[in-house]
Structure formats: structure tokens, C-alpha cells
Amino acid sequence: MFDRMAEKITPRTQDFSEWYQDVVLQAKLADYSPVKGCMVIRPNGYAIWERIQSNLDRRIKKTGVRNAYFPLFIPESFLKKEADHVEGFAPQCAVVTYAGSKDLEEKLVVRPTSETIINSMFARWVQSYRDLPLLINQWANVVRWEMRTRLFLRTTEFLWQEGHTCHATPEEAEQETRQMLQVYVDFAEEILAMPVVPGLKSESEKFAGALRTYSIEAMMQDKKALQAGTSHNLASNFAKAFGTQFLDSDGKQKFVHQTSWGVSTRLIGGMIMTHSDDKGLVLPPRLATTHVVIVPILGNSPMKPQVLEAADKLAQAIRDAAGKSALPYEIGVDVDRDETKQPGWKFHEHELVGTPLRVEIGPRDLEKGQAVLTRRDTGAKEFIAIGQLPEKAVTLLAEIQAGLLEKARAFRDANTFTVRSYDEFKSKIDSGGFFVAPWCQDKACEGRVKEDTKATIRCLPLGSDFTPIAETEPCMVCGRSESNRVRAIFARAY
Amino acid sequence: MFDRMAEKITPRTQDFSEWYQDVVLQAKLADYSPVKGCMVIRPNGYAIWERIQSNLDRRIKKTGVRNAYFPLFIPESFLKKEADHVEGFAPQCAVVTYAGSKDLEEKLVVRPTSETIINSMFARWVQSYRDLPLLINQWANVVRWEMRTRLFLRTTEFLWQEGHTCHATPEEAEQETRQMLQVYVDFAEEILAMPVVPGLKSESEKFAGALRTYSIEAMMQDKKALQAGTSHNLASNFAKAFGTQFLDSDGKQKFVHQTSWGVSTRLIGGMIMTHSDDKGLVLPPRLATTHVVIVPILGNSPMKPQVLEAADKLAQAIRDAAGKSALPYEIGVDVDRDETKQPGWKFHEHELVGTPLRVEIGPRDLEKGQAVLTRRDTGAKEFIAIGQLPEKAVTLLAEIQAGLLEKARAFRDANTFTVRSYDEFKSKIDSGGFFVAPWCQDKACEGRVKEDTKATIRCLPLGSDFTPIAETEPCMVCGRSESNRVRAIFARAY
Hints:
Two copies of one chain form a homodimer. Chain A has 494 residues and is α+β, with helices and mostly antiparallel strands. Chain A is 35% helix and 26% strand. In chain A, strands 3-7-8-14-11-10-9-22-23-21-20 form an eleven-stranded mixed sheet, sandwiched between helices. A five-stranded mixed sheet of chain A has the order 16-15-17-18-19, with helices on both faces. Mean pLDDT of chain A is 95; it is low at 1-5.
């Protein structure tokens, strides 16, 4: 396998979707499994998930949330207790009908999400206002039967975290929903270097069973939108279905107000489609395991031992420099000593898997006291004195992380348009991008856009980033000015 | 809920099994779920699992293993490809028969273990001897339909890690099997403070599909054995079933030689039954999140602000002392500021959840420049000068960790007996313990012991800890000296 010259990656301009698949498979991030719609996450991909988990887990815990684990199986009757919820999820459920060599009395659904099973426990655990807020998260696998799947982006089984909280008042639930949305925004931008728009989902796009759904939306390099995380205000919908009540300090029994929020292995797909290029994966340093690879150029040189020794010393010097720096993570530095491969093959391989920095050092470099340092993101190469290389490498890692976010943000901004006329929108939608427009909040207008153009409302963006469009303008679709207009982002999406 | 005075814990001497359940439920480690046999791991319990995961994961990775993730579902036909494997697992399987509102063409088994689905991928990934060894681990949930379940010890769904490796030769596979067994021994003793006997399973107790199974066996406080981890040499059994072959350096196609090995959330149950007492959980410091709790004794004292300030300062001083010490982990120090609870209630509560050290400090203590330091494991209390307390606390944490292992080891050794006569064995088995005896390796003798006494062969212990019994002595059960005798440990087990 390691002998094979890597296959060619389809260029993005030729076929974006083929390009994506080529990168995922050739960088050995994931593979198709024999089970329809289920993927295998290979070590290179799982290492990225581990970085995501450990960083996000820390952020979630900082807000006072604790991890727990709830059963994989949900009795079928539980799912049916919340009417919208079962309507939304039943068509996607995988169902266990026999177990232990017997037909089950009650069928068990493999969790598509855990609001119902968790509420059955919350109803037992919550008694008094002193038990609130109850802040729980779980890292788990979930199953949603999908017809059309795509590695990381949409798979029958995926890994995620799902937070579930109970609060005494509607205000606190709304505050928690928004707080976790902000955690996702910060995480996506600081760690994945993926700029996102936080916003409110339209009624027709909200979570089945929620009062209100917020999401973060990212723009991929093909200018399509990717929903990268959601945070739901569930009000008391599940609490009423399961009897999750508490005795308040005023002596009255009340239903709790709840939230749930989650991000999944889909983030890996989003990160790939945000940064990677025709050579393969471009990995933000915060997600890398190996940050710097040193390739000694040996050939048949009699200086081989000296070059290898210099490479090892340099590796240690880079680790030391990172340790002493303000870099908020530990870095991995490898020396690629494999003598069965040519340097050219190695360069190609390290580009494919996205190692942020590459150092080349050969006998002639050693004589001159220098080495070649190459950035994966820009491809920029420079000769640099060995003594200065460690500090430079550390500086570059921070620059690459910041640069990837900036570049992606500039790309998104350049492809975000304000539109007021439906004709203009229809003439532009085929070239992709985010379209910010006034919308009358009528489902009919939302539906018409989808039918005409396959674009959907990604969100009603929060904040003031899109002020060129005033909420007082007439609806882009129907032109009416009677009902409450809002600013909506229309786009084609994954 | 926090108002309720904690219920009474059944004493161990009265009913060990009730005691265990009381500790698990009252310390809020786990709870029963509405799904038969499935448990909910509550935050106090899950925090222990997170400690187990992060430490063991580091040890596994140190041996060169990388994490990955394979599908939850296994096509039914895969399970049938290895004859012993399907015979062992089929009766315990939960099966998905419809999904996405349709009957499935091929039923999907919820993984009881992943040798088959993983081999279907290994068969694709392994081509050449240069791809070997292939060393993979996954952290996952698995499902085995159990009739009689017990929180943590035996549940329908449980969490575990399962390692799966491929090697070029039988010798390397055996070496890997033994290496991972040793990783489990070290982990159990150094982190869980749970002494274990590593050994070989008898033919009738080995993993369905393995050539050979090793296990680590621990003794609980009721003198029953608990199998705490297993490591299997699978030979080429699964490789042949799935065609996992490689082109060796001699130009020949060969089947890989494989291993698999795992530990699960059962370890938490084992840890509880090893150390805990009639007041609740006793937690080895390596598994604690809060290592020291400081309880300010306030009453109506006018010195309340001073006491609270002293408590906060002390907490920071303990953290600092730990940071500067050789203690190989970060410690958590909490000040229990809850003014709605009495100190007595708090002492009880912190004992229940197993916090290793408790500090009490009140106005009179403050005047004298002292505090009270209490160990959870022994209950020993002492007055100590506030200036000396931080270093003392750090020393005690190390002492508690070592002391728990020593105590458990002494208990096990005191209840491990060598027996040569079957009558003697039968007269002693009811009082519990490990019985080391010569065995002729005949299944009939093994079966007879089980029928007569409910005891099973836990393992054929490795190493020389049990040399009083020579392998040349006649079988304890049948008295024969013809066949190959071995030393076996007989015990009743969980």
C-alpha cells in the first residue's frame, strides 16, 4: 500500500464533490464501510476528532456542564410522546425488534438524538428549584437513516456531543441556548479556523420538538452553506411530555425549561471543505498531531549521520521553542527517517495529510547552517538559518492558524451578497454564495425559493453584520410590506 | 433532592450486593434506565470513566496504537463467518430489522464486539508486510443482551475500548497479546489501586473465536473474583474468515496473525467493590476530580469572612503545593461554601462520594493557626498547622493511593489458598477466596467443580506468585497424574 504512488486528486474546479471524496480517502481520514451509509473513521481522521473533542469539551465544561452517558436504545413509545419530535425523526429511525433470541415486547429505536430518554431520567432527578440548573452533556454515537450519504457530512451513524439542560425560567433557557451557540462560534473560528454566521432557523427548518433553533452556518469553497452546529430552545415541550417538573421557591410545581445543542463529526467535513486544496488536506495547526515534519535529504551522501543528527537536534529545538512560547498547545515534530522513500514522494505525502510545516535539510544545507522551511497553506518556501528556524516555526504556526481563518472569512465575505429583487437573486444563485435579503416570514415565500432555486433559508443572522439590508424593506420574494420582515440568508446547502 | 437526608447504606456484612447497589445509587454514580438492562452513567460516575479513559488511552498510545472508529452495525452474515464467534455471541445479540421505515434486506447486529466488521476493513487496508503491524484501538459502546444485569458489572450496553491488531507472525501476535495484558495489569494497580492476577483462561472460558485468552482477575471484598480485562490471541481465525492477507517479504501471500483486547466500564464496579466501605465510595486519588474538600465551619460567627478567606487561601496553597510536587496529576480543591447545609451533613456527603481528603476550618482553628485534616480511606483525623497543611495533603494523596493498593493486596493474599484435596476445597469454598490447585486440564474436572460448587477456573496464573503448588502434583479434582497438569485458580465470580 505504501508503495503505490498516490492517486491523483480531482481538482476542485473540475468536480468539487469528487475532489472532497479524493481528499478524504487519499489522506486516509475515513473510508466507506460495508454497512450502507456508515463510515469508518481512520486514524488520521480520528486524531482530528480527538483534538476537536478535547478542546470543545473543555469549553463546555467551563460553562458548568458535566458529562454523563445515557442508553443507546429508546423505547418506541418514548419517541411518540412529543408529537413534532416523532414526526421529524420516525422516518429516519433504525429499530431493534429482537434481542437475546426473542422478539421484543416493545421495539427499541437506536437513538437519533436523546431528548426523550434523557427527559425520562431528568423527570426523576429534578424535584426542587435547588436541583436547577441541571447541565448535562454526552459524547455519543447516533443513527439517522439517510438515503444519500457523504463521508463526514451526512452518514447514517455519526459521532457527536449533545448537551441537555433544565432551567427554572424561560429566560434562563434562552440565555443558555444563546450561550452555547456562542461557544460553537468561538470554537469554530478559533480552532477550526472556520468563520461562521450565527443565526435563528426559520420555523420550517427548526429542530423537531423545539420552540426555537439557532445554528452556525459556514461557507464552503464551492460557495455552498454547511450547517455546522445547532442550539435549541426546547421550552417545556419535552418536560410536559415526560413530566419533568420542579417545586419552585414560591411553593408551586412548574415544568422545567430546556435546551439542547450539538456538533458532530460533520465539523471535520466542514473544516476540509473550508481550507483544503488540490494537493490534499490543509489542517489548521490546532487540529494537527504532527505540526512540523523534518525531511532529511540523504541520497548517498557520506554526511548522512551528521544530517540525521542535525535533524533530530532541530526537532528537539523546535519542541523546546514551542514549549517556551505563548502557543497554547503542545506541538508534534517528526523526523521522517524512512529510507525506502524518495524526498519527492515524502513531500507529496506530507502535503496530502496536511502537515502545517515542512523542513528540508541536506548535506549542503548543513554546511551552510541553513534549512528550507515550507508552509503547507500558502506553499511559501524560504531558506532560513538553523539557529533561527525553531522560533520562526512557532511564529508561523500561529500565523497559519490566523491566516486560514482570515482567508476563509475574506472568501465568505466576497461571496455574500445583499439582494432586494427576486429576479436578481435568481440570476445570481447559480454562481453560489450567501444572499442576504428581507423576508416576510411567510412559509410560502420560503417554499417558493426552494422550489425555484433549491436554495433554503440558512438562518436569520444575529448581530449587525448584514445591516445593508434593513428589516423594513419589502420581502424579496413577494414584495409585500405588511407582515414582520426579517433579514434572512438564502443559500444552497449541504 | 439535595434536601433529603441521604438514605442508609446497607452494611457490607449484611448484604454485599445491596451494599454495592446502595453505594452506586446514593453516590450518584449510575442509575437504572427505563430500557431493560441499560444503565445511565451519571456525572459522578462518568467523571471516573473520563479519568480511566485519559490515563489508559495514553498507555495504549505509548505502545504505538492509534485510535479509530468503526460502525455500530454489523451485517448478520459477517458474524457468521467465524463459526465459534457466532456460536458465542448470537444468543446475546440485539438486531435491527427495519430502518428508514423499511424492512432491511440484511439484518444488522448491534456490535457485541467488533472483530468481524474490523476485519472486513483490515482485509482492504493490509496488502504488504510493510503495512504491518497494524495497531488500532476504538473507544465505543457495545451491546450484549444479558438476562441478569448489575450496574457497571454487567449491563446490556456498556462502554469499553477494544484494541485490534494485525501482525506478520504468530510470535508477534502472542507478544502483543501479552504486552497489552501487562498494560492492563499496570493500569489496574497504578490507577485503580486494584491488584490483579494475570493469567490464561481455560479452553471453555476463552473468547469465542480466539486461539487463547488471557485475563486479569481481581478479588472483591466479598472474596469473589471479577474478570477485569481480557487480551486475546486470535491467531488467523478471523483473518481466514475475512481474507485478511499480506504479501510477505519472501513473496508469499500469508494470513495476518491478530489480537484483540479490552476493558470496560466494569472496571468502575470493580474499583468500588475493592475499596469502598459502609459510608460510601472510597476513591483512589488518581480517579478523583475533587481531591480535597475544605469545609468552613461558620455557624453564626462574626469571623465568617475571615474563615472563608482563609479557606480560599488554603485551597490555592494546596493547589500550588501539588503543582510543585512530584504528584503526576492535577488536583482539584473545592471550598464547600453552601450555607444551607450543616457541616455534619456535608461531612456525610463528601464521605459518600469518596473525596480523598477533607479539611475543616472554623474561627477557633483560625485563631490557633490550624485546621483538621481527615483521610477518607482510614478515617484518620489530625490537627495540623495551616502552613504545613498543603504539603501534608499532597503527601497524603500519594499515601492513600499506595495504601489502597497495599490493603487490597493484603486482603487478596490473606484470602488466597493453596489446595490439593477436593474435599478441602469444597469445605472452604463457601467462605470465599481464590483457591490455587493443580488441574489436569480435563474439561470434565472443570465442569464438575462448577456443578458441585459454582466456582469456575478464573485463570491459569502467569509468573511464580503461586509456586507452593507444583505443576507436577495430581489434579485436585480427579487425582490423576497422567495428563499435563497446570496450576489453576478456582473461585466464585461475578
